[in-house]
Design goal:
The complex is a heterodimer. Chain A is built from 42 helices and twelve strands. By secondary structure, chain A is mostly helical. In chain A, the strands form four sheets. Chain A has a five-stranded parallel beta sheet, with helices on both faces. A two-stranded antiparallel ribbon of chain A has the order 1-2. In chain A, helix 1 crosses helix 30 and helix 33 crosses helix 35. In chain B, 4% of the residues lie in helices and 50% in strands. Chain B has one domain. Classes of the chains: A mainly alpha, B mainly beta. Strand 12 of chain A pairs antiparallel with strand 3 of chain B, so a sheet runs across the interface. Chain A: Keywords: ATP-binding, Cell cycle, DNA replication, DNA-binding, Nucleotide-binding, Nucleus. Chain A: One of its GO terms (molecular function) is DNA binding.
Chain lengths: 1007, 118
């Protein structure tokens, strides 16, 4: 009772303050905006007083956020290139500062404008907040003296990470460069050996080939060594030489490079031993020392071969060698490239989510209940597939279970696919998977499904096959010749049962052992379908016939345990609390947590001296800041409402969560949901039912007058100008945050009073109906001028109430002969008005079966306010009076129709009352026949043409009509008369159809 | 019990015909198509066809005998006070009707039709 009173009081307060708001924003005290500055806004959360938009606007003005109120149109306009939220957070950016400065100048210019001087408070009010949002979320930390805001820390962290990445990349590049260098040295040595061999045995091509092969084989070995070296890269100091060497190398042409290399070694003739001189293409002379031959046979023939070799031959040999060196070099380069690619890849490319996928039933982390249910369903297939045990469905010939398709649903990453695979393997099936990436037209899938579910698995160790259709809700509803994919599945699963029974009877009669030749396809193997959203429209038919299970994710503790196991296997030091946090932040999404963990593991390890706690803190901050594992999951509206109305320190909330964190999470969740309007409606309709503490009601009234009006303003501005809607969208989250700050309680929605918002839709429906009603009322109005001066909205706001009073005179008796004096006048007037507005009284039966007269169109609903129904009676209510009115109206209608008929006949024209009418009609007739004559002479005499009116041409000369010059006025008058006497008549042929309606014709028209 | 006197005099009989058309007869005259206005010529052909000519168009129709003949009567005398002197005079008996259900065609003159086509 007490709370009821309280909520009434709140309502009253609210209405009064809303009334103040409606009267205009200019009436709102401007001192709120002026008095509270940026400092006030900073204290928003700390003082426990709900922040107002004004505070934030004041902050915004300090920052000159580019949003302004257009004074002429009362609209919010977003100045060009308005900042997005991310820009807001990175406010320390120099570019943004300069941008803000320019915007500030703009705003100053606008303020200096004389028109704006009239509404200074408005401008200040609506040049919207910039950091206010951040301030609001960060309020606690700022207040607690935590130093710089977290966004800055984030930015700094990100920058540091990016720098580190760059360093890594550079280092890898340098390592590759080192490898190349080493390889080049090796190649040079090779060349040397090759050269020597060539010098020794130029004459035999076989030996050349062998030498070449050997030369090719050796760098391959060297490559292997190198790749081993590269795969275990060590962090080493960057030497300037390495960096310098690499870019310098490709600049030089190849032959000069070679020449330079050889020039160093072979430029001078060796001091000892024999040598061969050779000239390169560049003209350098080289001296190659002769060495002992590797093979004895070659060495035997060496002196003679050398002796025979002339200078020209040697030159040719050197040319060939150079050519070979060139090919070798290109091959080596190619090898380096591929090696470089290899070295950039990590050692184990598998995702952990794949690597640690559950292999056995006991490894499954999804909820035990679901696992068991799936196994039970598979057990029911045993009788059909493995011919053991009794089937669940005794009616079925194949002893299949009643529901032959299993539909697993649930959010992504909970292990639905894993569950299906593991359970199937556990039962001894071979799993065949159809994924979203496969072709999924109905015909193809049908072949595939039948192939799997009908044939005995021959290829795969003789095990029966089970079909897993993953992501079935992604199946397109495209209808092919055989219908869409899902309905094909349904047909396969259901139609077989009927056919099976029919077949069973037929079999009994014919004595045929098996119905193998029948055309009807049979589903003889289980099918497991997996989807995220079981209520996808595509799945509707399947949902009815399939066994549906919603896969529950593991509990956070269990997932954390599993993550810890994985960490142990990967030798990754990890704090259990961090893992629990990770599990919670991914909402027990196994795949996402594992991916996040792997990402963390791949990051550079902390310094060796760091303690485990520091490492855990770093990991936690990495998790929190980089958004790793944070999930863009759309939550249900009710969950969001619960979040809005639950205090951050409520018992059920996760520990160690500050109000600011909670608020930030709330804003993010609202942003993801995108349902600002619906959410706000829900808050608006339910906030009074919530159990929050506001003894003076000031916070609630502030919320409504400030924040909700602000939200309305934003919403309206967005609607009016859809291009701006996107820019304004991000502000719609903060009114919801304000609702949270004002109305949240530890209980949340636990009282159960929360109802889904329906008032807005109901109001919309009612409004549509009323507008249609007003329009139909207007359409029935015979008075053109009246009709044109009214619109549907003016009918509702100004006209309807008075009009209904006019329609409701006090008529006491139902006998029209007894009506006297004023009552008679009123009744007649009522009938007149109703006729003029096209209102009718229609007899109908009401809900109790009583006859009533309804007003058509039902104008009485135009003023059907709650609570006013009894006070205002529209039209005389008594049945008899209404009947009398209806009869009177009908009589009048008949009379007017008869009048019209007489008018058309032209007989009644001379009757007493209608003389003027007849004269008018006659005049109009003449006007149509000859406008000039009629206008010039209303009395009916035919003057000489041109006497009254002389048509003149452009130069003012009178226009002489040609036919009048030919014929005399008398004859023209005669022809006119004749034309009047003989109007045209024609036969209109209705082609193509016979409407077969006999039109009643009065005999008087024929006689 | 009131009696209604219906008079039939052969000498006063006029000729009426009932026309059924696939289409409508229309006019731009304000009062509508009424009275004995002459706007069409209807000819009976010896082969049982009828031809209605309006302007340069012509519709061919057929004559169909009515299953029940119709009588055209005119009420005479004032019926307000008493019904004693109320009489109906039969003006015509209609026994057949003309049905025009074909599409009108342009009634070209014969010499135009005889022109050689190029």
């Amino acid at each position: 009772m007490d709370s009821q009173n309280g909520s009434n009081l709140r309502q009253a307060l609210l209405t009064s303050s809303l009334g103040a708001m409606i009267r205009g924003p200019a009436a709102d005290p401007a001192d709120t905006a002026a008095g509270s500055g940026a400092q006030g806004a900073l204290n928003l959360l700390g003082s426990r007083a709900a922040p107002t938009p004004h505070d934030l606007l004041a902050v915004a003005q300090a920052q000159t956020f580019p949003l302004a109120l257009d004074d002429d149109q009362d609209t919010l306009t977003l100045l060009p290139n308005a900042l997005s939220d991310s820009d807001l957070e990175a406010d320390d950016d120099a570019e943004d500062d300069s941008y803000l400065a320019s915007e500030f100048l703009n705003a100053q210019a606008m303020d200096a404008h004389p028109e704006h001087a009239e509404y200074p408070e408005k401008t200040s009010q609506f040049s919207i907040f910039a950091d206010a949002c951040v301030v609001m979320a960060d309020g606690d930390e700022e207040e607690g003296g935590g130093g710089g805001g977290e966004p800055r820390l984030v930015a700094r962290d990100a920058a540091a990470q990016a720098y580190e990445h760059r360093l890594d990349a550079e280092q890898q590049g340098r390592e590759v460069a080192n490898i190349i260098k080493r390889r080049e040295v090796a190649a040079a040595a090779e060349h040397e050996g090759l050269l020597a061999r060539h010098k020794l045995a130029v004459v035999t091509p076989q030996e050349r080939f062998a030498a070449y092969k050997a030369a090719m084989a050796r760098p391959a070995a060297a490559e292997e060594e190198d790749s081993v070296a590269v795969q275990a890269p060590k962090r080493q100091k960057v030497d300037e030489g390495g960096m310098a060497a690499r870019p310098a190398a490709p600049e030089r042409p190849r032959d000069t490079r070679l020449a330079a290399r050889f020039a160093g070694r072979y430029a001078l003739p060796p001091e000892t031993g024999e040598y061969v001189a050779a000239r390169t293409a560049a003209g350098t002379t080289l001296f190659f020392p002769l060495r002992a031959p590797p093979e004895p046979s070659a060495s035997a023939s060496l002196p003679s071969a050398l002796g025979r070799m002339s200078m020209a031959q040697a030159n040719r040999v050197v040319g060939e060698i150079e050519q070979e060196i060139a090919t070798r070099e290109s091959l080596l380069d190619h090898a380096h490239d591929s090696l470089a690619k290899l070295t950039l890849q990590p050692a184990d490319t598998r995702l952990w989510a794949e690597k640690y996928r559950a292999r056995a039933y006991v490894d499954l982390v999804s909820s035990e209940r679901t696992n068991r249910a799936v196994m039970e369903w598979l057990n029911a297939w045993d009788a059909c597939v493995f011919r053991r045990g009794a089937g669940a469905d005794t009616q079925d010939r194949w002893k299949r279970p009643l529901r032959r398709i299993l539909l697993l649903s649930g959010p992504p990453g909970l292990g639905k696919t894993t569950l299906a695979h593991v359970a199937a393997r556990q039962k001894g099936y071979d799993v065949v998977e159809i994924n979203a990436s496969d072709e999924r037209t109905a015909a193809k899938v049908r072949d595939r499904v039948l192939g799997v579910t009908q044939t005995q698995g021959v290829a795969m160790r003789g095990r029966p096959q089970l079909l897993v259709i993953d992501e079935i809700d992604g199946a397109s509803g495209a209808v092919s010749a055989q219908g869409d994919f899902v309905s094909m599945l349904v047909k396969l699963a259901t139609a077989t049962s009927d056919a099976g029974e029919g077949e069973g009877q037929g079999q009994a009669k014919d004595g045929r052992p098996k119905g193998r030749k029948k055309p009807q396809a049979q589903l003889l193997r289980p099918i497991i379908c997996i989807c995220n959203n079981v209520y996808a429209p595509v799945l509707r038919p399947l949902r009815q016939i399939a066994q549906c299970y919603h896969v529950q994710g593991p509990t956070a503790a269990r997932l954390a345990q599993r993550l810890q196991d994985v960490c142990a296997l990967e030798q990754l030091p990890c704090d259990p609390w961090v893992l629990a946090d990770l599990a919670r932040s991914t909402e027990c999404d196994v795949r996402a947590s594992l991916n996040a963990l792997q990402l963390m593991a791949n990051r550079p390890a902390p310094a060796a001296g760091a303690t485990a706690a520091a490492a855990a803190a770093a990991a936690a901050s990495a998790l929190g800041t980089a958004g790793v594992g944070g999930k863009d999951v759309q939550r249900s509206l009710f969950a969001l409402w619960a979040q809005i109305f639950t205090r951050a320190d409520a018992p059920g909330q996760p520990r160690q969560q500050t109000a600011a964190e909670y608020a930030r999470a709330l804003v993010a969740a609202v942003r993801v949901s995108g349902e600002h309007e619906r959410l706000l409606q829900g808050c608006w309709e339910n906030y009074l039912l919530m159990d929050f503490r506001d003894l003076t009601h000031t916070r609630v009234s502030d919320l409504c007058t400030q924040w909700l009006c602000f939200a309305d303003l934003m919403d309206a501005a967005g609607r009016r100008n859809p291009q701006q809607a996107h820019g304004l969208h991000s502000y719609l989250e903060y009114p919801l945050l304000a609702v949270h700050l004002t109305c949240s309680s530890p209980l949340g929605l636990a009282r159960g009073a929360f109802v889904y918002p329906a008032a807005d839709y109901a109001a919309h429906q009612a409004r549509t109906a009323r507008v249609a009603l007003a329009q139909s009322l207007l359409a029935g109005c015979a008075h053109v001028r009246m009709r044109s001066s009214l619109t549907a909205s003016t009918v509702c706001s100004e006209f309807a109430d008075l009009f209904l009073q006019v329609l409701s005179p006090a008529v006491s008796t139902a006998n029209r002969h007894l009506l006297r004096g004023r009552e008679l006048e009123q009744a007649e007037r009522l009938v007149d008005v109703m006729a003029a507005w096209g209102l009718r009284l229609v007899q109908a039966k009401d809900a109790e079966g009583q006859y009533v007269y309804r007003v058509e169109p039902p104008v009485d609903r135009l003023a059907g306010f709650v609570g006013r129904k009894s006070a205002r009676r529209v039209m005389p209510l008594r049945y008899a009076v209404r009947q009398m009115l209806a009869q009177e109206m009908e009589r009048r209608r008949v009379r007017s129709a008869a009048d019209r008929g007489e008018d058309q006949a032209g007989v009644g024209g001379m009757k007493d009352g209608n003389a003027a009418e007849a004269a008018k009609r006659e005049y109009l007739g003449r006007l149509f026949a000859d406008p000039l004559a009629a206008v010039g002479c209303p009395s009916g005499e035919l003057p000489d043409a041109g006497a009254a009116f002389v048509t003149k041409d452009f130069f003012g000369r009178p226009v002489v009509k040609k036919q009048q010059s030919k014929t005399s006025p008398a004859t023209s008058a005669q022809t006119m008369q004749k034309q009047q006497q003989q109007p045209k008549a024609w036969f209109h042929f209705f082609e193509g159809f016979s409407n077969a309606v006999r039109k009643p014709t009065r005999m008087s028209e024929l006689l | 019990m009131s009696q209604i006197d219906i008079q039939y005099r052969k000498s006063e009989q006029r000729e009426f015909c009932l026309i059924e058309t696939q289409g409508s007869l229309e006019t731009d005259k304000p009062g509508g198509l009424r009275g004995q206005q002459r706007f069409a010529a209807i000819e009976r052909q010896p082969d049982g066809k009828v031809i209605m000519k309006i302007g340069v168009h012509r519709v061919v129709g057929s004559v169909v005998p009515l299953k029940k003949p119709l009588a055209v009567m005119v009420k005479e005398g004032q019926a307000e006070d008493s019904s004693s002197d109320l009489t109906y005079k039969i003006q015509a008996i209609i026994k057949e009707k003309f049905i025009f259900k074909l599409r009108p065609v342009v009634d070209l003159q014969q010499e135009i039709l005889k022109l050689p086509t190029v």
